[in-house]
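Write out a sequence, fold above all:
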Amino acid sequence: MTNRRQETTVAGRGLARWGLALRLTAAGLAGATAIGSVLVPVVAQAQDYRFTNIRIVGNERIEAATILSYANISSGATISAGELNDAFQRIQGSGLFEKVELVPQGSTLTIQVQEFPTVNVVSFEGNSIMKDDALAKIVKTQPNHVFNPAVAEADADNIARGYAEASGRYGVRVDPKVIRRSGNRVDVAFEIIEGSVSEVQRIGFTGNHSYSNRRLRDVLATKQSGLLHAIISSDSFVPDRVDQDRQLLIDFYRSRGYPDVQVTGVSSEMARDRNAVFMTFNINEGQQYKFGNITTVSEIPELDAAEFSGLAKIRTGSIYSPNAIDIAVTRMEQLALRKGANFVRVDPRVTRDPRTQTLNVQFALVPGDRLFVERIDIEGNTTTQDNVVRREFRTVEGDPFNAREIRNSAERIRALGFFSNAEVNTRQGSGPDQVVVDVNVEEQPTGSLTFGASYGVSSGFGINIGLQESNFLGRGQYLGVQIGTTSDNQQSSIDFVEPYFLGRDLRARVHLWYNTSEDDNSAYSTKRLGITPSIEFPVSENSRLELRYTYSVDRLYNVTSEEEAAASGSSSWSSPILEREEGERTTSSVGYSYTWDTRRSGIDPRYGFTARFGQDIAGVGGDVESLRTTALLRAERKVWHEEVTLRAELEGGAVHKRGDTQLTVLDRFSGYGKVRGFESNGYGPRDRNAPNGDALGGKYFAALRLESEFPIGFPEEYGITGGLFWDTGSVWGLDDKIGAGGIEVDDGMKLRSAVGFSIYWRSAIGPLRLNFSRAVKKEEYDKVQNFDLTISTQF
């Protein structure tokens, strides 16, 4: 290179690594001792000085008066050699000068300085994981500021720390270099060697007797590095996540009846090359307890304990859960408020019986402090409107203060998913009976654009595009757009949800859709265009009711008659039943769905039960008059120390015509997805005398699905488990049964069943499921499917 730059590499420690000299020259003194590059007077040969003239040399930007203020030497005053050294230390310690010399010459003291250079450019080299903009926010060395080597050293440490916090890289090396320029200016370049991510290679536990290491690892936010460690961020070691993992373990055990559980320590050992971490959680489980006697007492004369005792809903002998107590307390305090008792606190008094390993709980209604909510202050919400946060409070300004309700409100705010952090605290208000609630939140991205791929043996390869925004315009509303296409089907939809319609707990939704399809097991095509506005509200703690209206335009077409096929020389034609159903018509219906879901309260995390019942009545205008009814029961249970999950689903439906309406294949049920082991529309009534053997669907369907999911030996960080399933069900029932050749179609209820094995992969890029099945009960004309692969990928 013709223009070779002078470069100082920072490789050691201290100021010497910058090649900068700091020294005190004691010329004219009786003696001096050299320590490194600094000369200090020998204290043994003490000498006093008296300077009538102090001369400043070498300063350009810094005023002489500033240097004199650091020296603190008065003209004409007598000073010792030690005081002269102190003056030197003060000037050098100011951090303003690269070189300082104090030269006594008779009655004149010359203070010669060389100022630190000005920073010209700050650059970063070798970085790819963290961009320049992010690094520039970390360093304090800035262009057009005075260069300070100590600050640059601290910047290098902060950059390394930033890599550790942002991406779990603890082996990062940062070498600051100084490049001299003319005019006492320097360029500062931070050379970065990013290295590899410090992965969590192993997570172990000690003291756990009730649950296996595999089960406990599934609880933690931190994961072991596995097959996809290059794209999974949760397997990177993040020290701040350790406290979260500790609390997750405690909550896990307490919710399963272990009130005394302790995580006594967490050891994190880093490998020598700093690219791997080995974590061990030390657990003291304690004993598992069950609920004993549940009683209620009142220390407030106007409140009858008998009215509150039924709200506990805790069964004696059930596994202890702190969540069950919290829910019971909330119910009782809400009843007290409805009765006008504003300052009532429900105190759960827990006593244990180690002999029977039970916890007796007495809910005591006691007088609470007479405090009022003066105001609720919300800060940090740059996008989200105040009312979105404020509506999660059941308390408004002027209401009696209830600490439990404030805590519940904080949990609801966090559950919104709009904020990376949400803190709710209280402080003294303007008076002794006033409380101010402070809400501090940190916004996080709430929108996502997804591109997906899907594959099914029946549907083939497909592309999916989705746009979701869960906090639309900062109003807490949801907007979603989905577009999907396969070789035979195209589906698109738009959803808009207002979770607090009219300022109440009313979930208003508008759903629009446009779908087209061609059925592989029938020679016809369909188009569906519709809109469904609905409103949903809670009926009880675990149940909700949805009311809806649906308007749709549906078309059945591409049906080929026997005459048309003969005219075109084709031997393939459709069932006469489909011919009579061909055409376009409108449907206008009102409906409702009632849902009961025990997972809403979450008292027992090992068990979940869901029940759903719905009906749609068509005939409020439109061309169709019908009554459509569907029902679903679903239960899930974790057994064998929660290593195995058992699921059961019972589903059924019926559709009946009203008046003279003719039901078509668009109104009837198909067997798709109800019994595995069969193709889409692969079973049910079929016109076997038509060349196409058209599947016609049925007015009724029923299905029972039983399955289990369990480990199959893969490390849990891979997210691969196995399962067994058994499905049985049927689709049956037609109004119009006269098919090809005038022969009646068999539409009787004939049970089908299949057994199979599943492989689940809960990967970071989406869920994958492979089903290997065998139909054990079928009709000769059914179309089976022994293998099915479903992939849903988002990136």
